């Protein structure tokens, strides 16, 4: 009975910690207002405010396993959450230059990377098999719920108090920190065996990372363009963008609820299906300027996005032993976030070849995601046994 209570407390702590792990996508509602404050800046320069969060996670996720040689996973997660809190407060005081926002994004990204890796790794430490997939699904629910809170909250704060105060939504990390201290055991720093041989990156893991890189490039089109897309087509303002982003995040709750069922039913095809759903959502947005249709696209994108996130970290952990789980999660997560960073540099000029309409960015990304989803289904980086952690 006590063990069950302990596990329940651990689950609660990890899930509340996960409320912040999609904040890099949830800040998209403020981009159009930042662009208006810096009229001489290009679209790509403004989009970097969001995507540089993903860039900074790339090295930090790869470095994170080394933090675990000196700190427990819980303490690494607490450090990451605290950095996100600092990143939420800084723009209130430093926002007169675009480069200041870039530095803020680096701080948020560094914190985010530590939370993403440790939250998933802690699940892999305490749970196995389909139970682990179930908890990963719950994590996707809380990540989506947190993303919805950040997206809608940042939109409301931006509308009423200015975009520089939109970042203050990250004050939600204060109660999260208290719960992490209370519910998650401190744990121990694992001893490194001298003959362990270190972490070996297999060919399949490299291939997995490559697929995540490609997915990151084209999935990020939605988050980095949706606010400008709505504004330029006269569909709505930053608060409308917050609503659309929140719908995307809330759709992830549905994805979290069915994730365990999806893994059990479709096994290695789960990832490919997730990317295909993202393709459908992106295409729907690109082919319509009707707000209701755009919201339907956001719904499809949200389900696919959350399912891909949960599947990515869960399946990466299943490909290696428990000691190497953090490193494997870091590889696939960092690859996806690197793709997110270079997204604007790939999509914007590619779409520019065919015209200046911002809808082209969504249409091209939708087509690319369709191809990536099919490739992931045909040549999955994991086996059925690895998918269910059998």
From TrEMBL:
It holds the Pfam family MFS_1. It is a multi-pass membrane protein. It is found in: Cell membrane. PROSITE patterns: MFS. Residues 6-384 form the Major facilitator superfamily (MFS) profile domain. InterPro entries: MFS, MFS_dom, MFS_trans_sf, MFS_Transporters. The keyword Transport applies. The chain crosses the membrane at residues 48-67, 76-94, 100-123, 135-154, 166-184, 205-230, 242-263, 275-307, 327-348, 360-382. The keyword Transport applies. Keywords: Cell membrane, Membrane, Transmembrane, Transmembrane helix, Transport. PANTHER family: MULTIDRUG RESISTANCE PROTEIN MDTH, RESISTANCE PROTEIN MDTM, PUTATIVE-RELATED-RELATED. This is MFS transporter. It comes from Absicoccus intestinalis.
């Amino acid at each position: 009975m006590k063990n069950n209570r302990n596990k329940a407390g651990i689950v609660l702590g990890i899930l509340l910690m996960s409320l912040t792990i999609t904040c890099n996508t949830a800040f998209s509602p403020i981009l159009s207002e930042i662009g208006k404050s810096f009229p001489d800046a290009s679209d790509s320069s403004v989009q970097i405010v969001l995507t540089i969060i993903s860039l900074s996670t790339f090295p930090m996720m790869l470095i994170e396993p080394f933090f675990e040689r000196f700190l427990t996973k819980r303490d690494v997660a607490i450090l990451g959450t605290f950095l996100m809190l600092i990143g939420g407060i800084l723009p209130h005081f430093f926002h007169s230059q675009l480069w200041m926002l870039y530095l803020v994004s680096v701080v948020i990204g560094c914190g985010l990377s530590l939370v993403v890796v440790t939250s998933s790794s802690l699940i892999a430490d305490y749970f196995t098999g389909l139970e682990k997939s179930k908890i990963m699904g719950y994590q996707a629910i809380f990540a989506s719920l947190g993303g919805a809170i950040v997206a809608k909250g940042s939109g409301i704060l931006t509308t009423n108090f200015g975009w520089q105060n939109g970042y203050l939504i990250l004050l939600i990390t204060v109660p999260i920190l208290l719960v992490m201290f209370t519910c998650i055991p401190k744990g121990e720093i694992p001893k490194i065996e001298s003959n362990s041989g270190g972490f070996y990156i297999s060919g399949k893991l490299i291939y997995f990372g490559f697929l995540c890189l490609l997915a990151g490039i084209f999935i990020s089109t939605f988050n980095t363009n949706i606010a400008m897309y709505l504004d330029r087509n006269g569909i709505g303002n930053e608060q409308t963008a917050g609503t659309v982003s929140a719908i995307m995040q809330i759709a992830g709750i549905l994805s979290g609820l069915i994730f365990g069922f999806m893994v059990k039913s479709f096994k290695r095809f789960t990832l490919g299906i997730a990317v295909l759903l993202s393709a459908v959502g992106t295409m729907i947005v690109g082919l319509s300027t009707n707000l209701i249709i755009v919201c339907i696209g956001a719904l499809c994108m949200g389900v696919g996005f959350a399912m891909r996130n949960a599947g990515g970290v869960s399946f990466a952990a299943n490909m290696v032993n428990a000691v190497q789980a953090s490193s494997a999660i870091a590889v696939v997560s960092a690859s996806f976030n690197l793709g997110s960073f270079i997204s604007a540099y790939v999509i914007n000029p590619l779409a520019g070849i065919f015209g200046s309409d911002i809808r082209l960015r969504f249409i091209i990304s939708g087509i690319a995601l369709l191809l990536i989803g099919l490739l992931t289904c045909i040549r999955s980086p994991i086996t059925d046994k690895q998918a269910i952690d059998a």
